[in-house]
Amino acid sequence: MIPASRLVEEANPACAQCHGKERFETPQLAWAVWQKMPRRSIRQVYRCEQCGGWHIGEVRS
Ligand SMILES: [Zn+2]
Question: To the nearest whole number, what is the mean pLDDT of the chain?
Answer without folding.
Answer: 77
